[in-house]
Amino acid sequence: SFLAGNDPSGAQAFLENTPQPAATKSTTTALPSLGLDCLYDYFVTNATFVGGGASTAARWAEISLRLRDAHGLTPEQLRLAKSIAVLNLVGTDGTARASADVLHYAINDTGLKKRTKDHPLNELETLGIVTYREFADEYRIWQGTDVDIANLTHTTRELVSQRPLPDLLSDIHELTPVVAAGHSARHNLLRVFGRRFAAPGDSVEAPDTFDQADGLLLLVTPSQQDNKPALPTIPEPLPNSKPVVAAIPHDISQLDQAAREVAALDAALRHESVSDDWVAQRELTERLSMARLRLDHALIEAYNSDDCSWHLLNPLTTLESRRGSAPLSEAADITYSHTPTIRNETIN
Q: Can you give the pTM of this predicted structure?
């Protein structure tokens, strides 16, 4: 309908009513183009948007009301705001987002990347029409809030910047136990290792005989300046204590950055200034959700078996770095070498 229909805001009307600049031999003139702002006008004016469910329809309504109530915008500002709006809406079901690069291409504005002080994008930010979401490199049509989110998150980032990484990770990320899959399969007996974060050189108690877990995996978080971090230690291990394995990643930089961003956003969301502001709450909640996804990915990358050095601490043994939970299975093989194989799940 947009491309072939006769609506005044459709493509056919644009082709019929938009004059083409006269061609000259001396100059090159860009042809008029049908932009994302035209798509916005067509779908919002005619209320023809369908699909995407109730949440997408609500987002449509929110954006259209925000732009309708934004008075005094210049044609350039309005065109840019409508382009951002369309990218925001299609981005809910895909990968397109209103980044500076995409907007530069969408509105054919060579000055967009330079971001001069008086550029319409900066003006829209100043007016509170759009907000820039740094973590996603994306501009969003903004409902508006009295909370200065940029300043609040800057403050909370400063607060968490000096916290020890193991403590920070323990507060924001709950670790679940992991199975030593190879050993469990070979011996018909499930061996499960608890997990916790630790700093280099920490003194750690080994799980005792009656601990539910069959061992403990320490995810060590060395500083980025520490070329050879010290192993955690076990004070006076008992003869029957269960195995303790330390995994030391080669590169902690992405994990450190992702963890501190989650901690900062979590602190911002719990700040008293946000408690009664649903717009700020929703924005910070969405940012925190994306930050947690990046933290999950960073944890997988940092503690991938191939990217860590692995050590059994009791007795001190260097384990082979192999895929999956292979180092834990090797530790279980050493510790539980005399366990009989009983092919009965109930007894096991």
A: 0.72
The set of residues, in sequence order, having a beta carbon less than 8 Å from that of 266 and lying 6+ positions away, is 172, 288
Dist. CA 272–CA 260, nearest whole Å: 20
Segment holding 244, helix H or strand E: strand 244-249
Print pLDDT tens along the chain (348 aa): 899 988 888 999 999 999 887 777 766 777 788 889 988 988 876 765 555 555 667 777 778 888 888 888 998 899 899 999 999 888 766 678 888 888 888 877 655 655 566 678 888 888 888 888 877 788 888 777 778 888 999 999 999 999 999 999 999 999 999 999 999 988 888 999 999 999 999 999 999 888 999 999 999 999 877 778 899 999 876 777 899 999 999 999 999 999 999 999 999 999 999 988 888 898 899 889 989 999 999 999 999 878 899 999 999 999 998 888 999 999 999 999 998 888 887 877
